[in-house]
Amino acid sequence: MIVLDASVLIGFMFEQDDHHGAAVSLLRNVVGAPLGVSQLTLAEVLVVPTRLHRLDAAEQMLVDLGVTEVLLPSGASRRLAELRVETGLKLPDCCVLLTAQTVSGSLATFDDRLARETTSRGIEVIAA
């Protein structure tokens, strides 16, 4: 499974986003691969569509992409706290990293710092 960071999904969803072209390219290159997103990342991605009263359209776009919401495992709060201390990443990024670890998958992101922390833990990073 490829776990998607908010930077990829937001870039894909909004043409005016700086990462739009890269996000479209990245997702085209992984067509057919299972895609996942953490609960917190999903909430983060849906904030603007909710504000714009386009939540249904945004959720349908995610369904069309084949994105699956991945639940954090039991005991996630402890592991997230540890990742936050170990990496200095913000908690939303720790959720993405923990999700990739949980599913033994790879991670797609445009965030350089998250990418470095991910690869340092032996997890493949996918970028455009």
Describe the structure.
Strands 3-2-1-4-5 form a five-stranded parallel β-sheet. The model has no long low-confidence stretch (mean pLDDT 95). It is globular, with a radius of gyration of 14 Å. The protein is an alpha/beta fold and 128 residues long. It contains seven helices and five strands, in the order E-H-H-E-H-H-E-H-H-E-H-E. It has helices at residues 6-13, 20-29, 39-51, 55-65, 76-87, 91-102, 112-119, and strands spanning 2-4, 35-38, 67-70, 106-108, 125-126. It is 58% helix and 12% strand. Strand 4 (106-108), helix 7 (112-119) and strand 5 form a beta-alpha-beta unit. It has a single domain (2-126), classed as 5'-nuclease (Rossmann fold, 3-Layer(aba) Sandwich), CATH 3.40.50. Helix 1 (6-13) packs across helix 2 (20-29), helix 3 (39-51) crosses helix 4 and helix 5 crosses helix 6.
Dominant shape: globular
What's the CATH first level? Alpha Beta
Strand order, main sheet: write it out: 3-2-1-4-5
**Biggest sheet details:** 5 strands, parallel
Low-confidence spans: none
CATH topology: Rossmann fold
